[in-house]
Specification:
This protein has 325 residues and is an alpha/beta fold. It is built from 11 helices and 14 strands. The protein is globular and about 50 Å long. The structure holds zinc ion (ZN).
Length: 325
Amino acid sequence: MNKKEQYKAPLYGRKNITTTNKKYQSLKNGDYHTLCKTLASIGGLNFKCYGDYEYKLNEIKENHFNFTNPNWEIKEEEKIFFIRHDIDRCLITALKMAQIENKYNIKSTFFILLTGTYMSHWLKNIKNLIIILKEIESLGHEVGLHYDMYGEYFKNNRDAHTTLSTQLTLLRENGITIKGCAAHGGTIKGMLRSKYTPAHTNWTIWEELFPTIRDLIVNSKKLSLPALSLTKENLYYEAYFVEGFGDTPPAYISDGSGKFWKFSAPQDNIQTNIISPSSLKDNIKKLKKTKIISLLTHPHMWLNGDERSSIMTNNLIKNIKNFKL
Ligand SMILES: [Zn+2]
């Protein structure tokens, strides 16, 4: 097996799309009501958190990447629908989304990044960070970890294992249940893209998913891989690597650059398409064979023009300090 195949990413959701078609409207905070109402009206969608399942690791096959395999039980007439939120910047918007979903009996999984400029301000006010995460859990949702170990190692010289265990300890010791994780694109994504084809993304750090021993070298700095273990940290899944149902891969929907949806459903022969926000329902209804759908949002992309200033540094620091439930 050649190196390219060995590091191949999952089929779904990893197509590079660079277009930014201006004709589509921005996704806005207010629109999230509409989205949830729309999803709830489709029927047959069973909204689940990733942690609702038990996972086992697949047998490692010929140095290939691996998947975590859930104990699916899916009724004939239903589809499992995971909503996944990657909280890169905006925890308060994430909470608003959690509240909106709760109104529509939708549950979802919120993956929190604890590194980077925006989220670093929250680490100076852990009390309010934890209050929000606990509130998200109490609304019936799950909290998971969004991680950028390559960025931390290559840019900030932080050891991957120490970074991971510090983050997990912070969350768990404050009473947040963390069962799984989802990779952040990462601050050195561009560098890794230009050097490795297909790109290394944070998920290649895990020994259970990419067991081959190799070195990752960026600007003469070396990281020996695999560097981390899901199992040893009591993490049961990586959201990008949750296996489909039988031989049907999941459909993957992402909020793109905040102007459109990226839509891909290999099982129904829909490779990656860009669709307008308003055609999401029609596209979901077209899925015949797909049994698992996963929809990714980035909460900060759901802020409108005025609200966007709420995450500018000065406003953010004030908003974090003054936050009340
Ligand atoms: Zn991210």
